[in-house]
Amino acid sequence: MSRARTPTISVIGLGYIGLPTACFLAQSGYRVVGVDVDVKKIDQLRRGSVPFDEPGLFNLLRGSLKNLSFSLKPVPADIFLIAVPTPLTKKKDIDLRLVKAATRSIVPVLRKGNLVVLESTVAPGNTTQVVQSILHEAGVDYDLVYCPERAFPGKTLHEMVYNDRLVGGVTRKAALRAKKIYEKFAKGNIFITDAVTAELVKVLENAYRNVNIAFANEMAKFAHHLGVDIWEAIALANRHPRVNIHSPGPGVGGHCIPLDPWFVVGVKSANVKFLKHALLLNESKPRFVVDLFLEAAKKRDFVPRKVAIFGVAYKKDVDDARETPAYYVATQLAKLGYDVRCTDPYVKHFSFPLYSQSEVLVWADAVIIVTDHTKYRSVPFDRYGFRLVLDTRNTLTAVQIKKLGNACVILGNGKRQ
Ligand code: SAJ
How far is the CA of 119 from the centre of ligand 1 (A)? Predict the structure, then answer.
């Protein structure tokens, strides 16, 4: 490799993290080849269109195309960056099949002196135990680092540039090399550590959030028991300078927070009980929503038949429905024999058919707000004669609540149940 020419980077996996990362690297002057096994996605990207919505991504892609090309297979490069998903198996173990396949796809093109960066979330130890073991088959000297992504869907582009980053090197030399690459576009601090510490940091971050949400969820249940409003209580407790209680809700969705902490629980020899309790508590929340709904209907001598689910995105104002609690709420209601229709202003594909907001408003006799989309704060729910509107996220405004009167039930508010 000539020292003077522009290094080439192959980004394997063009999803929510890989695609914007490939674009940022291309804009920083690297020649980037984005690799994905999805033929449709590659065709789409070659035409200059984005396969999913993320604010600013379309313009970022368009501005990167000069240095960015796409391929179904890795081609020789100086640097390989792996950003493929790590889902959970049915038994809640980490499913490393995509990481393994991506790593194997590099083996035939790995050359002496290459740098391999793993960004996929993995369990502590996987970078060396899995990725390094596979790359060993190439029989060449290369550098390897683990660099967890930290971007927040909906603000991915901003966070990729401005968040602090962590580079976990299998060797210090590898870490220093990777740091130089991220420095080309990242404006946050870049910290260096070893690979297993970086792996642990990533799962700690998401476990921290899961545990804190579980605490808020447990306290929300307690507030129903006490007949107090947990939202008011949390707002007041958070006035303490060292308290930051998270928000309760219908459960925890997204591709990270409900899943990654299982990677720690999965290390059976470690016997991590506290985290497991939090995960299970959050997983039980959709059932709690259904029970709250049924009890509230009973208290009102009302037999709902047609239930509208407002919001199937896993969190507010995004189009992403992965692991959304709405799926579990809708499934349980459907199993109990209720007619369920879902609506969402942003999500385009979902396991249940999606209806327009106006259609479900005139069709339903009861509503469950599962996602706190900002738009829902201006929906005139009171005009449709609903006997029951259950708000699972404290979405509604004081005016909406007042107009709904006794029909309004709020998860965590024991004064409205
Ligand atoms: N949620 C609550 N209560 C809260 C906060 C969130 O019920 O107080 C729910 C949300 O509605 C959602 C779920 O939790 O259903 C997860 O949402 P989130 O906003 O906490 O996180 P994600 O999954 O969108 O993004 C997280 C981020 N991690 C942290 O904040 C520690 C992001 O920085 C990571 O890059 C991302 O996970 C990831 O890929 O790991």
Answer: 18
Let me know if 286 is exposed, middle or buried by CB neighbors in 10 A (0-12, 13-18, 19+). Answer: buried
Rounded to an integer, what distance in angstroms lies between the CA atom of residue 231 and that of residue 216?
10
Residues facing 229 on adjacent strands: 413
Q: 105 near 113, Cβ under 8 Å?
A: no
What is d(CA 67, CA 234) in angstroms, rounded to the nearest whole number? 49
Distance 157 CA to ligand 1 centre (A): 16
CA distance 234 to 232: 6
Is 23 part of the annotated catalytic residue set? Answer: no
Q: Which of 256, 315, 342, 408 does the annotation list as catalytic? A: 256
Reading the block at residue 288, the tokens are: 């709690």
Other CB atoms within 10 Å distance of the CB of residue 108: 11
Ligand 1 site residues (CB inside 6 A) read 121, 149-153, 205-206, 209, 213, 246-247, 249, 252-254, 256-257, 314-315
Please check whether residue 128 is in contact with residue 39, taking contact to mean a CB–CB distance below 8 angstroms. no
257 Cα to the center of ligand 1, angstroms: 6
Residue nearest to atom 23 of ligand 1 (CA): 254
Q: Which two tokens stand for residue 190?
A: 């870049």
Task: Walk along the chain (417 residues) and give the pLDDT tens digit of each residue.
Answer: 445 688 999 999 999 999 999 999 999 999 999 999 999 999 999 999 999 889 999 999 999 999 999 999 999 999 999 999 999 999 999 999 999 999 999 999 999 999 999 999 999 999 999 999 999 999 999 999 999 999 988 999 999 999 999 999 999 999 999 999 999 999 999 999 999 999 999 999 999 999 999 999 999 999 999 999 999 999 999 999 999 999 999 999 999 999 999 999 988 888 899 999 999 999 999 999 999 999 999 999 999 999 999 999 999 999 999 999 999 999 999 999 999 999 999 999 999 999 999 999 999 999 999 999 999 999 999 999 999 999 999 999 999 999 999 999 999 999 999
Tell me, yes or no, if 342 is annotated catalytic: no
Q: Give the CA distances from residue 136 to residues 111, 362, 400, in Å, rounded to whole numbers and listed in that order.
A: 12, 62, 62
The CA 261 to ligand 1 mean position distance, Å, reads: 12
Instruction: Single out the catalytic residue among 41, 202, 221, 315.
Output: 202
**Whose C-alpha lies nearest to ligand 1, atom 25?**
152
